[in-house]
TrEMBL record:
GO biological process terms held by the UniProt record: cardiac muscle contraction; skeletal muscle contraction
The organism's taxonomic lineage, starting at the top: Eukaryota, Metazoa, Chordata, Craniata, Vertebrata
Function of the protein: Troponin I is the inhibitory subunit of troponin, the thin filament regulatory complex which confers calcium-sensitivity to striated muscle actomyosin ATPase activity.
Coiled-coil stretches: 27-106
Molecular function terms, GO-annotated: actin binding
Entry keyword set: Acetylation, Actin-binding, Coiled coil, Muscle protein
Protein name, entry field: Troponin I, fast skeletal muscle
Protein encoded by which gene: Tnni2
UniProt-listed InterPro entries: Troponin, Troponin_I, Troponin_sf
Length: 182
């Protein structure tokens, strides 16, 4: 039993040691990646953005401003063009995905409204001019005449239930019931 506990403790300690070693490696890798990104950023800025040298005269300063405005306009035009291209490709993607759904036969179901429609009208809508069957279900039902049974007549003749109870109460009522049974 104690050996099993020692093995478990050793396995747990080994697992935790490996976990901490992996975390240390991950931290160093993240730091390396951050440093590489920073170096890459610095190289890009050095290449594309030369250091700014401000001229001494007013005329040279105005020329620099005009150059900067021209660069800003060109970058703005490029940004606008890329946005338009992106919108166009997104629209094409939506159209293609819709065509794909149509080809597969999976349509988006439109919201349905309740419509009151008789069975005849529904068959006419589905079958068109081929519709010849009359779906008037009430016409096909049998008509049943209600027969008056003796019990119903007795119940109608009895009238008020209190009178019936008073008639059957006492010895006279029992005698009447006994005679009726024979």
């Amino acid at each position: 039993f104690f050996q099993l506990q020692k093995k478990r403790r050793a396995a747990t300690a080994r697992r935790q040691h490996l976990k901490s070693a992996m975390l240390q490696l991950a931290v160093t890798e993240i730091e390396k990646e951050a440093a590489a990104k920073e170096v890459e950023k610095q190289n890009y800025l050095a290449e594309h953005c030369p250091p700014l040298s401000l001229p001494g005269s007013m005329q040279e300063l105005q020329e620099l401003c005009k150059k900067l405005h021209a660069k800003i306009e060109s970058v703005d035009e490029e940004r606008y063009d890329t946005e338009v291209k992106l919108q166009k490709t997104n629209k094409e993607l939506e159209d293609l995905s819709q065509k794909l759904f149509d080809l597969r036969g999976k349509f988006k179901r439109p919201p349905l409204r309740r419509v009151r429609m008789s069975a005849d009208a529904m068959l006419r809508a589905l079958l068109g001019s081929k519709h010849k069957v009359c779906m008037d279900l009430r016409a096909n039902l049998k008509q049943v005449k209600k027969e008056d049974t003796e019990k119903e007549k007795d119940l109608r003749d009895v009238g008020d239930w209190r009178k019936n109870i008073e008639e059957k109460s006492g010895m006279e009522g029992r005698k009447k019931m006994f005679e009726a049974g024979e």
